[in-house]
Amino acid sequence: MSDHSISMTINGRRQTGTVEARTSLGDFLRMDAGYTGVHLGCEHGVCGACTVVVDGRAVRSCLVLAVQADGSEVTTVEGLADPEGTLHPVQQAMRDSHGLQCGFCTPGVVMTFAALTAEDCKPTEDELIAAMSGHICRCTGYQGIRKAAKILVEGGAA
Amino acid sequence: MSEADPQAHGIGAARWIGKRVPRKEDARLLTGRGQYTDDVTLPGTLHVAFARSQIARGNIVSIDTSAALDIPGVHAMMLAKDIARQPLTMMSFFFTPSEVPITPLADGYVQYVGDPLALVIAETRAIAEDAAALIAVEYEELEPVVTIAQAMTGEPIHPDTDSNVSVEMGDDEVPEQLAATLEGAAHLITQTVIHQRISQAPMENRAVLATREGPEELTLYITCQSPHNIARWFSTALGLPEGAIRVIAKDVGGSFGLKNTPWKEECAVVCAAMLFPRPLKWTEDRYEALTASPQAREQEIKLDVAFDDEGRLLGAHSIYDCNNGAYPQGADANIAVHMFMWPAYKMPAYSFLSRGWYTNTNGLAAYRGPWAMESLVRETLLDKAARKIGIDPIELRRRNLVYLSDQPSTSSMGIPVDDITPGECLDKLIQHFDVPAFRREQAEARQQGRYLGLGIAAYIEPTGSAGSMAPMTGELAQVRIEPTGKVTATMSTHSQGHGTATTMAQCIADRLGVRYEDVTVYEGDNTRGGFGPGAAGSRQGVIGGGAAIRASEMLADKVKTLAAHLYNASVESVSIEEGMVHVAGAPEMSRPIGELANIAYGEPHRLPPEFEAGLEVQFRYQPPPMTMTSAAHACVVEVDAETGFVKILRWIASEDCGTVINPAVVEGQVAGGLAQAIGMVLLEDMPYDARGNPTAATFKDYLLPAITDVPVFEYVHANTPSKTIGGMRGVGEGGAIIGPPTLVNAIADALSPFGEIEELVLPLTPARILDVIEQRDVSGTRAHRHGTAVEVAQMADVPAPDPTSGQVPPVDAVVLPGGVHPAQDATIAGDWNMVLKTPMGPQAMKAHFDVEGGALSGYLEAPEGRQDFSGGTWSDGNAKFNLAVEKPMKITLKYDLQLAGDAITGKCKMGMFGTAKVSGERS
């Protein structure tokens, strides 16, 4: 196995490491960088739990190799809330609408919502729901996630 | 659920109970700071991977580990003989030892594809997996037994067993009188359900991190349903003092029954960690989880129900079979299916034959509502009956449901029926759904070639079980007001997403008179608080909630006693609101609760005489044996006649959940169960091929419901407080029980212009729906199930046990070797070692019989004690006697035993638990 030196910005901080070519970004984020909020639910790109934002786009970190993210800017769920602890609007919407139970799929759900509502993006509710069809939640029946999508489009409380 | 609904509040002027407050758990879970098992790493942790059987059945000829051991980073390799240096007894959920030999790693033979046979310890998970893949195994392959039908006729898969029957309960034949009722009825309706195998598929797979801390201590981080239960299980399995085992499970990513009991892999890791001087971690990947974790369901049932000409129930009989796999977490004939088939309905007579079967597939584990088949087969049969008899399905139910005005009553199986409201839930549901308007819309749509359907179902569910099975105990609340004035509580409850840290805090804040924000609940560690079995059987809100409420009331009394003493007031004049202690008529005396706490902990001379210092209380709540939840649901679907696709348009739940602690949590439980119901009816399937290979290995094969498959659920409240402290009823499993028949009934209603779903085979894929629409075998299901003549014969009469398959033959057919009938002059008198096969596992006991003429007396002795009996009869080699027992509940056991040489065979009728086999040998 060949080792590769990589460097990326994770949640605003520089992270370097040496990885095998086969190491996934998800494994690198969890095991080397210590961001255990990145959850590996299926490791084959279906469940969406491991979703992180790489250079502004939501990607499944189990399907991206760490070496592919060399030089990128990565945001994980740990990097969303502000340093004082105020929740990001997506996190707040999920909390207000009881969008989670066990919380395992939640980081991925939050990161997809965050990527699609960042800055000037104005997605419709249908677009958010369509994006959510790529996330599996086994607990909630998606009721709160639907409500969160509505809040994110319309603004305001649940 | 509306907060304005007064019935949402079961007790008094509730302030926190009944509120949709934000969850305590969410701040850490939303920011990625939860602690799931794989998130924990201890210094020196090494990683485990398993080599698994590639065949379903065979003997292991050799295992070559040399190539695997050559990989850099591999530390060790363990096979069954290595693991066996740490003895461990695998046990069921009921803490009974397995009936068939079972070891953490396959020992000499394999019994299913995925059976773990070697454990690799390496620097990283990737290296461990690389090494496991290089282990070369040579097998002597045997013909696998995969299906229930094969189990019935195939040779026993387990050594030293006479058949593949794991458990059998009930009557081989329909009792005479019931048979006459069925035969003579105006309408005899039959429903057959073939339920597919299900993967519980929690988002967090199984995982364990085990570390031995010196010769006398073991710490486990393990994803589970109760750290207390895991500690108790491993303590018993390893023969270690429970105090030596610490189990931590702070956050768990769902379970749904899977993680009740540690199974082969977790046990192998724990044994290895006892033998190896480094912490060991195993995290299952999804491929392993789908193909090698215990699984659920795979049941078949045929139910016959007799109706009179007005649609009233007269009698019923069912035959139920369940594939237990090779190593079930408790051999299971699912007696609860029969116990809860009819108590909600006025059913005069019911009998059944229920069997579990061993096969070369993954073992059976629990899944949300393990007995859910009763609602599925009954409610779909009722709709089929309504169509065939020509009566409205709602009216058919109304004629037969047990309303409050009919209670208390007793079901035909002896279940006390009290405090259930399925009929009332149905009536409330119909008030919220305009059925005639829907029928008009349906008729118009059909004119346009659109097929709408309405499904309705009603049910009751036993929740909050305690006191009748070993692991099912009460729950403990330890509540204290800290010297700071903040409130902390240690609970025996445990959340795998249930939000018990939230709901228990609401109960405490409400009854103590403090702010919800000031209450913190600790759980998830067996060294905190007392024993509780965790989330199993929809119990934590009911029992844990009751414990939290009563403990808080006791603590409030203590605060009031102290305040009355300090302020020279009467106890009755003291109240606690929002964390402030008030004395009536003396507002200047109001003090923060923390001020009193400071005195209670730090100024003993100011306390009343006999007042225990501090402000701490504990209470263990032992509730009634079970608390019933009732519901009726309605669902509207549209079936696309071209493609067979089903779209769910509307779903309304009318539920009697008793007191609702947090509407969002209750709705979340119902909705989650309903989503799993939609998965079971339309999508999920874990099939095996003819060689016993599980063929759904990824989430692209095993289809879970996505957001686009699940509608918005509507809730109608029909809540009535239960008789428990707080008045809660359990809601954890209901959605997964009532959901499937509701949805199937809607689809069947939509399909009714084309024909009946004659045999309900799940999931109802688009192809299976086209089978009905096109009235031909589009899906190939019929060909697959009834393909050969032999199989057709078996299907037509599944119940008939093959006389060569090792079944116990009818008593009058007992013939001893050599064609000798039981000796008339042989005697049963003397001492015997007996085994009674109960629904919770085999129970060994000693028996002593005395015979005097035709009179039989004696005693049975189990570890729990000895019970004498007299008044039995003995004639022609047949012994009959009755024994009244108190546990698990008051029932009379009716023994009917046959002597054959030095062996006894026979049956024991156990009231609502059905009939169990008995065997015995002279001691």
TrEMBL record, chain A:
Keywords noted in UniProt: 2Fe-2S, Iron, Iron-sulfur, Metal-binding, Oxidoreductase
Entry EC number(s): 1.2.7.4
InterPro entries: 2Fe-2S-bd (IPR002888), 2Fe-2S-bd_dom_sf (IPR036884), 2Fe-2S_ferredoxin-like_sf (IPR036010), 2Fe-2S_ferredoxin-type (IPR001041), 2Fe2S_fd_BS (IPR006058), Beta-grasp_dom_sf (IPR012675), Diverse_Oxidoreductases (IPR051452)
Single annotated GO MF: 2 iron, 2 sulfur cluster binding
Domain 2Fe-2S ferredoxin-type: 4-80
SUPFAM superfamilies: 2Fe-2S ferredoxin-like, CO dehydrogenase ISP C-domain like
CDD domains with a match to the protein in the record: fer2
Protein name per Swiss-Prot or TrEMBL: Carbon-monoxide dehydrogenase small subunit
Automatic annotation (TrEMBL), chain B:
Keywords in alphabetical order: Molybdenum, Oxidoreductase
Protein name listed in UniProt: Carbon-monoxide dehydrogenase large subunit
Highest rank taxon of the organism: Bacteria
Enzyme Commission number: 1.2.7.4
Enzyme class per UniProt: oxidoreductase
A molecular-function term among this protein's GO annotations: anaerobic carbon-monoxide dehydrogenase activity
Listed Pfam families: Ald_Xan_dh_C, MoCoBD_1, MoCoBD_2
Xref: SMART domains: Ald_Xan_dh_C
PANTHER family in alphabetical order: ALDEHYDE OXIDASE 1-RELATED, XANTHINE DEHYDROGENASE
Domain Aldehyde oxidase/xanthine dehydrogenase a/b hammerhead, residue spans: 31-143
Record flagged with keyword Oxidoreductase: yes
InterPro entries, per database record: Ald_Oxase/Xan_DH_a/b, Ald_Oxase/Xan_DH_a/b_sf, Ald_Oxase/xanthine_DH-like, AldOxase/xan_DH_MoCoBD1, AldOxase/xan_DH_MoCoBD2, AldOxase/xan_DH_Mopterin-bd_sf
Gene3D superfamilies on file: Aldehyde oxidase/xanthine dehydrogenase, a/b hammerhead, Aldehyde oxidase/xanthine dehydrogenase, molybdopterin binding domain
Keyword flag Oxidoreductase: yes
